[in-house]
């Protein structure tokens, strides 16, 4: 059995495997521009960000009904559970669905059908995090948060994702203030493609509690010192970094140096259907390619539960941490 872990950086739309895409397309009468799953699987071998985003948004056309979102989440949770995930904080991108005429309620209630029973079905506790698309306007983000009003009992926090460069965190100051006033937790992608200054801005202007990716923080020693001092978790996604060429090869990934520096790193899958692996695959890859010790792997697993939004259930957090401590490699 793989080491128990929490997954804190996972886009549910990025878990759409070719087989499920075809199943949902058939159910909804959507024609995909690929003859079969093998051809679609080949398209998943994109080699740059734009071809990934084109495919990613194109395939969302198959997600139409509550049942589609339920099936999507259920398939992810089954795969995650098999790789040792005990707790998952799941991102979703409502703007990508609202723009296609799919209502907020369809998305949230559909996902919730799977999340609400996940503990019984898969042994995985869950949280849901609504992400704003940073290449859309601040007004659009504000409208999206308003549309989520009736569903806030299902939503733990807000995040910020999609193309980073040219869309600094400060653009979303107002909507993050509104989210904070609603009692929502705050995270944001920063320092993936964007500069270390975006990480600082996400902390200072948006008030984020965790930084998604944060990889380029290593370019700024003062920022690293601050992240260590303030115990800010970073949700790293090593296989994603390789596929999107944030690092040249996995062997070049700075994770070992980041752990050495005392950063609170976690390892996650990002968009696992597209980036070559789920949470456990990412753990296995960094362990073998980067030569992490068993104790470093245990530290990554511990960090994932420490950084999880489980403040309303500390008993559960303690239970998960005890599972990590008792784990025998
Ligand atoms: Zn991401």
TrEMBL record:
Active site: 192
Function text: Catalyzes the hydrolytic deamination of adenine to hypoxanthine. Plays an important role in the purine salvage pathway and in nitrogen catabolism.
EC number: 3.5.4.2
Similarity annotation: Belongs to the metallo-dependent hydrolases superfamily. Adenosine and AMP deaminases family. Adenine deaminase type 2 subfamily.
Pfam families per record: A_deaminase
InterPro entries with a match to the protein in the record: A_deaminase_dom (IPR001365), ADE (IPR028892), Ado/ade_deaminase (IPR006330), Metal_Hydrolase (IPR032466), MoCF_Sase_C (IPR005302)
Residues at which Zn(2+) binds: 9, 11, 189, 270
Site entry (Important for catalytic activity), positions: 213
Coiled-coil boundaries: none
CDD domains assigned: ADA (cd01320)
Catalytic activity: adenine + H2O + H(+) = hypoxanthine + NH4(+)
Cofactor: Zn(2+)
Positions annotated to bind substrate: 271
Annotated protein name in UniProt: Adenine deaminase
Co-factor remark: Binds 1 zinc ion per subunit.
Keywords in alphabetical order: Hydrolase, Metal-binding, Nucleotide metabolism, Zinc
Annotated GO MF terms: adenine deaminase activity; zinc ion binding
């Amino acid at each position: 059995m793989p080491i128990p872990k929490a997954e804190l950086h996972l886009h549910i739309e990025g878990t759409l495997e070719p087989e499920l895409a075809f199943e949902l397309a058939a159910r909804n009468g959507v024609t995909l521009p690929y003859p079969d799953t093998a051809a679609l699987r080949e398209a998943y071998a994109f080699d740059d960000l734009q071809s990934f985003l084109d495919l990613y948004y194109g395939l969302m056309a198959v997600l139409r009904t509550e049942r589609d979102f339920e099936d999507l989440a259920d398939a992810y949770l089954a795969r995650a559970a098999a790789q040792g995930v005990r707790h998952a904080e799941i991102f979703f991108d409502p703007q990508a669905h609202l723009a296609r005429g799919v209502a907020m309620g369809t998305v949230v209630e559909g996902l919730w059908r799977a999340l609400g029973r996940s503990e019984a079905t898969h042994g995985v506790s869950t949280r849901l995090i609504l992400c704003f698309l940073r290449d859309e306007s601040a007004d659009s983000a504000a409208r999206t948060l308003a549309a989520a009003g009736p569903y806030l009992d299902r939503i733990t926090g807000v995040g910020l994702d999609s193309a980073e460069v040219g869309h600094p965190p400060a653009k979303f100051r107002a909507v993050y203030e509104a989210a904070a006033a609603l009692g929502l937790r705050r995270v944001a992608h920063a320092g993936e493609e964007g500069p270390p200054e975006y990480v600082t801005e996400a902390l200072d202007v948006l008030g984020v509690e965790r930084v998604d990716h944060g990889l380029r923080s290593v370019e700024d020693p003062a920022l690293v010192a601050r992240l260590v001092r303030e115990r800010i978790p970073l949700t790293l996604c090593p296989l994603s970094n390789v596929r999107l060429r944030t690092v040249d090869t996995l062997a070049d990934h700075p994770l070992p140096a980041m752990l050495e520096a005392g950063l609170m790193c976690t390892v996650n899958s990002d968009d696992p259907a597209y980036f070559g692996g789920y949470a456990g695959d990412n753990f296995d890859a960094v362990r073998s390619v980067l030569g992490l010790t068993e104790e470093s792997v245990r530290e990554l697993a511990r960090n994932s539960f420490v950084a999880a939004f489980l403040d309303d259930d500390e008993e559960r957090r303690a239970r998960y941490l005890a599972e990590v401590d008792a784990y025998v490699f």
